[in-house]
Each structure stands twice: as structure tokens, then as C-alpha cells.
Amino acid sequence: MMHRSVLVLLSSFSLLQTVAAQAQEGPRQLNTLPTPTTRPATPDTTRRAAPPTAPRQLASPPVVPDSVRQQQQQRAALPPGNTTRFAVGLKDGKVYQAYDVLVKQPLIGRSFLLLDGQQRLELDQVRYYEDETGFYVRTTLPGRSSRETTLRRDRVGRLSLYSITSTQYAGNGFGSPYGYGRYGGFGGFGSPYGYGGPVYRTTKTEYFSKDNGPIEDLSLRNLMLATADNQTCTNLLLQARQYQRYTTLSYIAGGGLMVAGLISTLNSDKGNGSVISPLVYGGIPFLIVPLVLGGKSQNNMRQAISIYNRGL
To answer: pTM to 2 decimals?
Structure first.
């Protein structure tokens, strides 16, 4: 009996120690649930991994073609539009500015300039003037009378080019409808065969001046004297003079063969019919050569003027 009581006391003592140890760990809060333990998620090996997505980029602006870009730059580089004012210079040094310059050529009386429809200036008082068609100067022609003529300025530089265009009546007879000036002149209109109506020939005669000096004929000799200080121009003009010599010889040879052929044709035997002499056909190529060489000579003169103005 006594042994059983001792066992009961030991059991009670061990139970009290256990309760006291739990009380020291901290009182349990009311209305709280025990926190469940989380397990690490296992990877799903049955699904294929998605590829990594690149960061989204903004759309690039459209590419402008070079031609469009150049046109835009040219438009942007244009100056603002202003009303054009033309200059009219007099011989006494006065200069007028006008928005409208007209050349009046009445049937009776002298020609004059009309500025802005109000002010009238006689051409004898004018040294130069501008209008919508270009720049003009009043000067006397070389080797001519003291009467002044209006020349149009075609090029500006150390060698400035001037020209005058005239229309002349060429009659109604047979002839070529084309005319040539001393340098680069051409023209002629009317009947294309030179008959059947009045024929007019338009001739453009050109002049030049060096360093705004006196006006001179645009001939090969004068141009060689003006550009003697430039060896490149001298070589071009020497070649042009050689072309002119070949042209002259071709005209002489072609004309001689044509005349000889016509004489031979007229003196041939009439009984065998009219047979054209082969000399006539032989002279045709010699008459074509000057057309080619004349263009080369003019090109050399133009090139020499351009080189001299650029200072090469």
C-alpha cells in the first residue's frame, strides 16, 4: 500500500514539472490557429519552359529617300520671296529702282524706257538697265558709227559676253532657210525650201569686253589677244584656228569640185541623156566637213572663255 502511494506522488510531481516548463515558454494566445508548415514547391517538369522574351522596342521612324531629303533642303535654303526691283543707270551717275521696266518703241519718235508706268527716260540718257528678260547696256559697236546700240549681257566675268539679235529680210528666191552669224549665230524662218513666200533670217552677233573695258568683236583673233596670258586658253584657240583653216580648205575644195562637175555635165554629150558628172557628188563630202569643224571651233572658243573666267 505504501509502495503504491509513492508511485502516485512521483507521477504527480513529473506532471507538474511538465506544466511549469510549458508555462515558461509563453502563454498561448486565444483565437489563433497553428501556422501550417510550408513545403518548397517542386518544379513541374512536364511543361516546356517558355523562351525568354526580349524587351519591346519602339518602332523606328520611316527612312526618307535621298532625293526627297535634297528637295527639302533646297526648299529650306531658298530665301524669302521679295518683290523684284530692277536697276536703271543713267550716264550722269543716277540710278533708279523700279518694279516694272518697259522698252517702248513707237512708230514715230525715239525709243524710251517707262518705269512703273509713270516715269519716262530717253534711251540716249541710259547707260544700262534691267528688266524681266535680262541685263542690257547701251554702247557703241567697234568699227562702226558713233550711234549707240543696246546689247544684252549673256555672261559676267573677266570676259563678259554681249549679243544682239537682228532679223533681216532674205527675199523670196531659192536659198537655204538657215543663217549663221559671225559666232554662233543661227536662225531663219519662212519657207523651209527658200521659196513660196518671204524668208527672214535671224542672226545673233556676239561681242565681248575684258574687265569691263570697251566692247570688241568676238572673233578668234581678238579672243587670242585678250587671253594671251593664259596658256591653256591659247592652246584651245590655236586648235580652233586650225579648225577654221580646214573649214576654209573644205569650202574651196567642195566648191571647186561642184563647179567642175556642173561644167562637165553641161558639156557632156546630149545624145546619151543628161548624166550628172561624178565630180558633183565628190564635192558634197567636202561641203559637209565645215559643219562639223565649225561646231568644234566654236566649242573651243566657249571653253577658252570659261577657263579664263575661272582663272584656271
So the answer is: 0.59
pLDDT confidence bin for 161, thresholds 50/70/90: very high
pLDDT digits (tens, 9 = 90+) for 17-33: 654 555 555 445 545 55
How do beta strands 126-131 and 134-140 pair? antiparallel
Count CB neighbours of 151 within 10 A. 22
**CA dist., res. 221 & res. 218, Å (int):** 8
Per DSSP bridges, beta strands 148-155 and 134-140 are antiparallel
pLDDT tens digits, 239-278: 999 988 888 888 888 888 888 888 887 877 665 556 777 8
Residue type, 152: R
Task: Name the grid cell of 97.
Answer: 529702282
Which grid coordinates belong to 159? 570676259
